[in-house]
């Protein structure tokens, strides 16, 4: 299999005349280049129009001897919850004579696959090479999932340690990211579940004894399941955040209640002795002992007794 990085009209025409299978992987082509490539390869006008506009939903459209497979590849970044561009749209034009992959930004995964193909001359079938290209695009989601797993675990630990606005913002960012990834993966899973035989039945595409595309479908199911489980974990982080905040509020309310309860008898004592009854002033509140014993002493004793009672009930212990 020949591997091309640019549109070489003469070379492509020669390869097509010789019926030599080739892979053209192009990045950032202009609309004019895509139109020229469509004429050179005999692509259907609707397939060319989709590749000019991009912004397509994952799908598989068959046009006679050619087909357009629109995929979404994952773009890993650190941290994933702040990844502004987690997806890369990739258009695969398939035929029995060629496979063309078009994308707006460079794809490290496809570049690594080209290196592998170039170093290891293989006698594998054309169908196998198509499978490997699709498989690399699909498997690009696994590094993202691995990073998300670590970040969700770190987020749970951070919420338990002390829930704040930062943790809440990270939770919502992760939710939005997981929804974007799921909207990209589920349509691809549906395509491979219903219509993948279209690729295997393309005229001129050398078949293989193995059903490679079933492996791609299995990977998509696994990715979907992990995204669903991560979404549930993030929803659990939201519940954990709300529970932690409620516990903090409950702990604060309990502390304020204890303080108010301690000051309740103090307020009674100071109010009672501050009424200045004539008999009390003349017979009881006489001398310094009345201030220290009856005044400060009874207040200290009441506060100490109430604190001891709270401790015996277990109300002074922290729930954390």
TrEMBL record:
<feature type="transmembrane region" description="Helical">
    <location>
        <begin position="289"/>
        <end position="310"/>
    </location>
</feature>
<dbReference type="GO" id="GO:0050897">
    <property type="term" value="F:cobalt ion binding"/>
</dbReference>
<keyword id="KW-0813">Transport</keyword>
<keyword id="KW-0472">Membrane</keyword>
<dbReference type="InterPro" id="IPR045863">
    <property type="entry name" value="CorA_TM1_TM2"/>
</dbReference>
<keyword id="KW-1003">Cell membrane</keyword>
<dbReference type="GO" id="GO:0015095">
    <property type="term" value="F:magnesium ion transmembrane transporter activity"/>
</dbReference>
<keyword id="KW-1133">Transmembrane helix</keyword>
<feature type="transmembrane region" description="Helical">
    <location>
        <begin position="256"/>
        <end position="277"/>
    </location>
</feature>
<dbReference type="InterPro" id="IPR002523">
    <property type="entry name" value="MgTranspt_CorA/ZnTranspt_ZntB"/>
</dbReference>
<dbReference type="GO" id="GO:0015087">
    <property type="term" value="F:cobalt ion transmembrane transporter activity"/>
</dbReference>
<dbReference type="Pfam" id="PF01544">
    <property type="entry name" value="CorA"/>
</dbReference>
<dbReference type="InterPro" id="IPR045861">
    <property type="entry name" value="CorA_cytoplasmic_dom"/>
</dbReference>
<protein>
    <submittedName>
        <fullName>Magnesium transporter CorA</fullName>
    </submittedName>
</protein>
<comment type="similarity">
    <text>Belongs to the CorA metal ion transporter (MIT) (TC 1.A.35) family.</text>
</comment>
<keyword id="KW-0812">Transmembrane</keyword>
<dbReference type="GO" id="GO:0000287">
    <property type="term" value="F:magnesium ion binding"/>
</dbReference>
<dbReference type="GO" id="GO:0005886">
    <property type="term" value="C:plasma membrane"/>
</dbReference>
